Amino acid sequence: MLDKHSSPDTGPSLKPDHADAATLGELRHQAESCTRCDLYRNATHLVFGEGPETAEVVLVGEQPGDKEDLSGRPFVGPAGRLLDACLNEAGVDRDRCYVTNAVKHFKYQMRGKKRLHSRPNAGEIQRCAWWLGAELELLKPKLVVALGATAVSSLLGSKVRVMRDRGSILHPLGELDILVTIHPSALLRIREADEKERSRLAFIQDLKKIRNFLRH
Ligand code: URA
Fold it and tell me: How many Å lie between the centroid of ligand 1 and the Cα of residue 179?
């Protein structure tokens, strides 16, 4: 297991190669006309991060889902409601955190009339790290929470594994603390009730670590 001081293959978002803007508002404005990959073509909105500019903690998900794409806001659909409930049980106020995604446009496939989520590929994650890296540069949070494999890949590269490293706080460039945990949608996919509850409690345990990074 990688410990707090190990240096995994660092993800693109922590390298200096990111957008340049003086404020989050300006960065969002730039991102709204993003054509760095093809995902903008079929998306309704670019879903930029949301939360206080002074946030000490940044939560990073994978990409917007159907509801987020339609509303233009991160984590407002079923995974977002579950995240809110688990944060609440962990004693963390979402309103004090900045919430964003590794990829900022919804990627999906049509199945009949439904838009089904598709995982972003490595190229899409890398191109979108242009925006995530700049968000982190402007916010300079004390802790970044990587929710699931896409966020982990963007922030920490390919050597970190969610199920092996979850619950660990990694320290890739000596600058940022990054807490690795699962994505809340993983809980939504579990059918068996006991396993679902065990996994939910383990997720809440991970989220409790955030409290040490929030000023009281
Ligand atoms: N899943 C994510 O990763 N991000 C969202 O904003 C919504 C669902």
Answer: 17
Contacts of 159 (CB under 8 A, 6+ apart): 2, 8, 9
> What's the pTM?
0.93
Distance 213 CA to ligand 1 centre (A): 23
3-state helix, strand, coil split of the chain in percent (to 5) is 45, 15, 45
C-alpha to C-alpha distance for 78 and 134, rounded to whole angstroms: 28
Q: Which domains does the chain have, with CATH numbers?
A: 24-215 (3.40.470.10)
Per-residue pLDDT at 216: 67
Q: Is the pLDDT of residue 112 over 70?
A: yes
Helix (H, G, I), strand (E, B) or coil at 101: strand
CB 87 within 8 A of CB 93: yes
* Residue 16 clears pLDDT 90, i.e. is over it: no
Q: What is the pLDDT of residue 15?
A: 55
Cα 44 to ligand 1 centre (Å): 15
